[in-house]
Write a structure and sequence with these properties.
Structural class: mainly alpha
Radius of gyration: 17 Å
Order of helices and strands: HHHHHH
Number of domains: 1
Oligomer: single chain
Number of strands: 0
Shape: elongated
Mean pLDDT: 88
Helix content: 40-55%
């Protein structure tokens, strides 16, 4: 995947240029970025391209952390409670 495909709007590139950007702001930009990835393209593959392009030269940047977190396996879903869960009938 090319960089232009991985960051079609340049959102991640711009996040690395913002002085004093916070982790929360990077997560917000990441969500906008993820929604801009064309249908059928792999978000993890695009994140790897961005890590290779930007995070390697700025490993302490908050966006680098967010990009690495995007590659982590999601936690297994678990039951969230409710009446039946509290009574011990399921689970």
């Amino acid at each position: 995947m090319e960089l232009a495909e991985a960051d079609p709007k340049g959102l991640v590139r711009e996040s690395y240029r913002i002085d004093g950007i916070t982790a929360g702001e990077c997560r917000s930009i990441f969500m906008d970025w993820a929604l801009s990835i064309p249908v059928g393209r792999s978000v993890p593959d695009a994140a790897r391209v961005l890590i290779d392009t930007y995070a390697r030269t700025a490993p302490d940047h908050p966006m680098s952390t967010v990009l690495h977190e995007a590659l982590a396996e999601p936690a297994a879903p678990r039951r969230r409670g409710g009446r039946i869960g509290r009574q011990g009938l399921i689970g």
